[in-house]
Task: structure prediction
Amino acid sequence: MPYKLVAPSPGRSPYRRVRGSEFGIAIDRTTQRTERREAAQILAQWREEAKRASVVGPVKVGPTFAEAALAYKRAGGVSPNRTLVFADGCGSSPPSQREVWDQMWDQLAFVNLSGCDHSSF
Result:
């Protein structure tokens, strides 16, 4: 069934939805737009993306932060007993990017200050 623009359902959402399947890619999602003209533009954009994905295949944006950190560690960028141990799957959930950067800055400060004469502070 081709993609079609669906009017807002009373009690569900004020936004128009796109439903259907084209190029082997199914869609049932909101446009986050109340105006029909704006929703139609989004539908056209999604149709183009679906067409491109059917020809080229899904596009991978790039590695996640954890994947890149683990690759860096495996390439010898970090000592195995130091930073980035989370990338090996430790813990119930991965830390936020902010926590990782904080840990990396702490390690950098440790490395830079470990051989200093602290009397100059």
